[in-house]
Amino acid sequence: MSSIKLVAHRGYQRLFPENTLLAYREAIKAGALFIETDVQLSADQQPVLYHDRKLKRCTGLKGAVHDHLFKPLSLAPNHDPKRLSDRFVGHTIEPLSDLVTLLSKHPQVHAFIEVKSITIDFHGIDKTYRHIIDVLAPVAAQCSLISFHIPFMTFARNSGWHSIGVALRRWKDLHKAEVETMAPDYIFADVDDLPKQINFYDLKNKLVIYEIDSPQLARSLQQRGIEYIETFAIGDMQQALTQ
After folding, report:
1. Class (C level, CATH) for 5-36+96-241
2. Measured between alpha carbons, how far is 210 from 213 in angstroms, rounded to an integer?
3. N or C, which end of the chain is more exposed by having fewer CB within 10 Å?
4. For residue 190, how far is the Cα from the chain centroid?
5. Rounded CA gap, 194 and 159, in Å?
6. Longest pairwise C-alpha distance within the chain
7. Which helix (H) or strand (E) holds 100?
């Protein structure tokens, strides 16, 4: 069996504010060789690191990322107070360019860049793609583009991006004609949606399964042919799986 490859989902999210440079630095410090981040465009089309459709949970702001210009967004708190209290007050929404700088210092790290459907639907496929790949250019070889938005990923494949992935809303979407034609390098799937009682050794795509915080479950998935495990608890999982 190949070794388990852990993907730090939104960085070291269990202990730090998600989608922040702090969470990614701490994930890398904990041994992560793969990270995942969420990207959306501000109203003035600047790529920023943020997951939710709405800003309220992590920032307290109203509306969505695309409702705000980049400058006020970059000053907005992003410390997830409901989950983490006031431990990380001072952390703000950060631009994708800052993650690019971090990646350039860690060439061993591969990043899965998830482009959120809400930003694609608002700004359009072509514009979203162009703004994001322009920022990623210095570390392009370290980055895979992924999304739930199948037309966007088809566009990325046809535009020549070297590594792409599709996140499945349902496992059966794997067999959609557009997904099969696209032939994504990676398939991201929810562990609760995986078909039971089958192995995945013959699957042409690399499977990345989320959200896993149990070493025992990770090893059982490995025995079914799954190499990549996405986790919020990168430090705990890294330690448990290397003992």
Report:
1. alpha beta
2. 9
3. C
4. 13
5. 30
6. 50
7. helix 96-105
